[in-house]
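Data deposition worksheet. Section B asks for the primary sequence of the deposited chain exactly as it was used as input, without tags or linkers unless they were present during the calculation. Section C holds the resulting structure in token form. Section D is free text for depositor observations; keep each observation to a single sentence. Incomplete worksheets are returned to the depositor.
Section A, Depositor: J.P.
Section B:
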Amino acid sequence: MKRFSLQTSTRNQMLDILSDAQKALDSILAESNNQNSNGACLIYCPHTTAAITVNENYDPDVKRDMLHKLQQDIPKDDNYHHAEGNSDSHLKASLIGTSKLVPVENGQIKLGHWQGLLFCEFDGPRQREVWVSFLSAG
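Section C:
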């Protein structure tokens, strides 16, 4: 497993992390001298107020629309009991999910033409970490 860090700049944002995940995967494959570079890559977020998703990354309005709808449906202040003031962030992270499993072919993470691998920050700005693991097909 490899880890990489990122710094988020605001409370609700989505960052493309595909190149960072690919670099981590490259490092895993190089260190393991894995002859079979086909399988899957697990990208995991070890935080309770952030998430990982795969969605369109070509048009930035898609990310804006997703964040807008999440903020509309899960507002920051909604009479929550959690004292830290970030219950909305926990809810959003649980809905989106902490990880994605994506295919790997010939050592490359494979996504659809318009897709991106997105880190979703719901409680920033923060220093965050992402964990990457390779699962071999053979």
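Section D:
The chain has one domain: 2-136.
The mean pLDDT is 96.
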